[in-house]
Amino acid sequence: MGRWILAGLGTILLTVTGCDCGSSCEHNLASDQSQIIGQIQNHHYYWDGRELDNFFGLFTEDVVTHSYRAENPDPIWTSIDLKVLEEGSRNYLKSQEGKRSRHHPSGIQFLEITDTTATTRHTALIVHTEGDNPQPSVSMSAVYVIQWVKVDGIWLIKQRDFYRD
Predict the structure, then answer these.
(1) How confident is the model at residue 132 (pLDDT cuts 50, 70, 90)?
(2) Is 82 within 8 Å of 62 (Cβ atoms)?
(3) E strand or H helix at 101, and its extent?
């Protein structure tokens, strides 16, 4: 079963699998969708604000992340669990001292969603400001493909693939 739902962040395609529960499913689906969109917003907000404890709290302990550049099929960076992601993220942020970033997510799509798992895709325009210059400049655009899992009622990132232009 698939549905088009219009939201403030764009058109979202939902592919619902494994659900035959009728109207209660619709309510749970909308709630799950809303929670995941909130987590996507939190992901970017916490990263930009360097709120690392909150940022890392969005991921499962066994999260897998990949970063890709342009159309190269081989990842330029991979982490295989939360500790590796934390270490790599902290090192990256040290190299970015003096820069402030803002990620602007848009075009959030739900590629798959069940009661306990989901896959989303969205784009992000990433801008930076440096030093005393308040004028932001575009540093890149990217596509995020995220696999989610519901743990104790909270949607967490199980896998995140980042495709930068």
Answers:
(1) confident
(2) yes
(3) strand 99-113
